[in-house]
Amino acid sequence: MRYLPNAGIYTGLYLAYSSSSFSDGLKVEPYMIASITDGDALPKVYSQNMNGDYYAGVGVFSPFQIGYLMFNEQKHLQLALKVVFLQLPLIEYPGWMKGIYLTHDYSRNPIARRVVFVRQGNEIPLEEFAEMRTEVIPKDKLNEEQQAYYDYTCQQGDVIRSMMLVSPEKNVNDLMREKELLKLL
Which DSSP letter does residue 21 get? Predict the structure, then answer.
């Protein structure tokens, strides 16, 4: 199955800007979409976490301006899926792409947030990618460009959270209780 009409036009190195899970800052993560090699049906994609570990995954690009990057954020047998949904522009080799990514916070509760991918150049050797680092830039240290990404990705409503909650009443009121608790975070 080759469901990749123009996957090659999205290859390259990107910095992804999104809201940080643990501080009021802008998270900057390196991502790379690699060229399809012989024998592969899907392009390999790479991302990096705050610890400097990088994860390999796969990318799926449809002819309808939709792309998905899928990773398992656990190196162990447990599955912790991270999926990045990208709205792909109608131009070749776009300078930036926007989307939403679904992952887990540090307590393994599901979270969805806006993300902006800004192209940095062509793909690089994996050894060089491994040397890159994810960082969180505090809000008061953002430059003008970063402030624009912060304003788009880090405002109230740009992050959707959920949490495991003991439901003492076992009814729909527990859903409202969860939303009230999440407002405090």
Answer: S
Rounded CA separation 161/104 (Å): 9
Contact 30, 15 (CB under 8 A): yes
Q: Which two tokens stand for residue 142?
A: 């953002």
User: Residue holding tokens 């003008």?
Assistant: 144
Kindly state the helix (H) or strand (E) to which residue 152 belongs, with its residue range. helix 144-153
Q: What is the pLDDT of residue 3?
A: 45
Per-residue pLDDT reduced to its tens digit, 95-151: 899 999 898 877 777 889 999 999 999 999 999 999 999 999 999 999 999 999 999
Confidence of residue 176 (pLDDT cuts 50, 70, 90): confident
Residue closest to 26 by CA, chosen among 161, 158, 160, 154: 154
Q: 8 near 26, Cβ under 8 Å?
A: no
* Residue found under tokens 């790379």: 32
- Asked if residue 73 lies in contact with residue 51, where contact means CB atoms within 8 angstroms, the answer is no
Q: Retrieve residue 1's tokens.
A: 């199955």
Q: Which of 111, 117, 107, 113 is nearest to 16 (CA)?
A: 117
The encoded tokens of residue 62 equal 């449809």
In the chain, what is the greatest distance between 2 CA atoms, to the nearest angstrom?
56
The token pair at 170 is 């076992």
This prediction's pTM: 0.83
